[in-house]
């Protein structure tokens, strides 16, 4: 079976499940709104309107206004761009580095022990603490948060990829390739890597979700994204004192986080269910 | 036995790497604790003098060696800002964190294990989908957001629980736990999501094993198959995860501790990081990581005891 | 359809099983009919995927709930007290009362078929306590007796050991002990020796043969190994793509295979196994189809082509694409199972049309 038809079969199986379709639609909607609305509306999410402070949700302001009179929904939409960006970059970075580490550790036995000791060391810290420590070193900024989170999540990906590589290494087709004299790097590129796509994709979706949640937590603590940048986390952090009078300032940004993270996880679960059972255990 | 010694050696290796990492992380951060300590009026000479006093003028490798040496003697160092040894600060802060962790894991287990089992047994049914969906939802909720909402509802509106804090000194256990109910619910519910997923996966693994088919072929009722054959094999990994979850919560609950203003270990670390209190940062991070490594090792020991395949050796 | 044999232990009529999969419902087994007399061994032969395991699991009702198995047909089982029940229509709790008790099953993988964290004595005792209502001491004593029955050395020590402490052959003996614990009248053995070494295979088969003679139980023996069939079975049913294509007493089948698939299977056997089959048939007084002086072949034969996918079965006979005797009519409709002799049946349109005398022609393929 050619690679194309195998992928189209996988995609069809993936989208046969209603839950996955729902998740994909929700995500697509979020991305679409985040991309299109700010361009179309042109309104400034940071525009301060003191007279409009802390208005409850109404026909004019669907999600109410915050402590500086800014429209909450508008800020959520603009915040989506940042949160999605953070999730995307973090997931991509962690996956790239982690896959590299994992393949090296899984395939080359001499590198396995030192790399895995390093991974163990990094994973013996709770994620959020490591994130706090890293951001405090690098400084509080959007890119530093992403970099810090990449470092936090890389070990996780490395472990999964290593486990999957170990399974794949034992499978006969790798032995067959070796017996035919195929060079190691070609084996890795042409045989191991394509089979890692599915577990890696699962990790990608989950780390995307974790990153959004982690950034929110870090921003809440004051060691995340600088408060001027409207991410969902900074929105909640900024409106903390008003949570008793104006719950909507905190409620809606949080709901946005929940919605996005749930969709991502549903998608990830869907992909995981399609995995080869041998690899499933590793993920 | 050899397996255990191997693991022990590996764990020591990990701790060494952790110590180096912790030291580097701490000292790489910009910002001088001496400046913070002495305040705006301090002159350059004052700061330099303070640095010498605290041993911060020595080259980094020397500082590391000194710190490591003290560690072997059991001395975690002295806090720059708190006027007490790091170890003492940790001990004082450990009670709320430990109680919170145990309380939260209990809630997570009480919700998570039965739900995960039900999801596995009735796999594919509406119940399974609903439970799995709930698990996914639970894993998507930011802890501080849920904390804020719960505070608003149960503390501010209804007044059932205190909104924050751990209570005044001298309060009894009951009062303390009362302060911990809301944060424990937050952490318990969020972690139950993980437990549901893991329990379900673990049970499904076992349910697919050949010996379960054999048990059914013997004519055993499904109830007996689950309890006698499936649970016995599925519980050990589940307990593993519960143990590790508890370990992670020591220090990992920083956000929740901040929301509820609990004087715990996480809070200690965050304050120290913001103030660059090097000894506290180093000591606390090291202890937190060491606890995790230790619990991992204990779990491996547990497997050795429980699984007859490892205990008795095979053919 | 033949009349109900009054002396059958198990009579299966028109068993069909289908499963739900991502790609739709698949018919795994269709229109399977055979019967087993008390004390008789019937072999169900076929390659991987022919539906033999599915048949056995359908009879025992052991399909996974998530596979959404749907079964049709009848499987009449005569209980110890003489009553006849249809296994496929039985309520779950009544079926459970029979499982492990009057009908027992042993599986292919002895290495993974026993619970690793319980002693083998406890696992055998569990069965006895359930069906015979014995107390713990009596059940343990019975378990010990069963281990001795299956010739496990040092049974008294083994009773307290865990499965991983036994070799594959011994574990299969334990499985047999487990199955025999409640003195079943029907034993279903799903490829019990496939995963074992050849020498151990022989021992296990000998053990099963002895137990069968001593207890008079019927055996449904599922295998793809024709050598074992020749040695051990009384009657054979050959399955292909989920259907029975030929059934006959064992000597008759080896002496005179009728269905082209069966012929192909026997042709594929390397020389030694075939000669064994021939010599057994000769001893029984049958005329061999290819004559005693067969020229020695230097090449291994294979049946050309592959089994069709269950998702897209051909419109007519499933074997037609690979059959050397194929004719146009074969692709029109699935042939029915027809009797060519009092105890022989074949599913082939071409054969059904020819007079019986032609069946003794030498093979030209």
Q: How would you sum up this structure, described in words?
A:
The complex is a heterotrimer of chains A (283), B (315) and C (365). Chain A is an all-alpha fold and 283 residues long. In chain A, helix 3 runs antiparallel to helix 4, helix 3 runs parallel beside helix 6 and helix 9 runs antiparallel to helix 10. The two termini of chain A are 26 Å apart. The model of chain A has no long low-confidence stretch (mean pLDDT 84). Chain B contains 14 helices and no strands. Chain B is an all-alpha fold. The model of chain B has no long low-confidence stretch (mean pLDDT 85). Chain B has two domains: 60 residues, no CATH class; 219 residues, MetI-like (MetI-like fold). In chain B, 78% of the residues lie in helices and 0% in strands. The radius of gyration of chain C is 21 Å and the shape is globular. Among the domains of chain C are: 73 residues, no CATH class; 97 residues, no CATH class. The relative contact order of chain C is 0.12. The interface between A and B is large, with 44 and 51 residues.
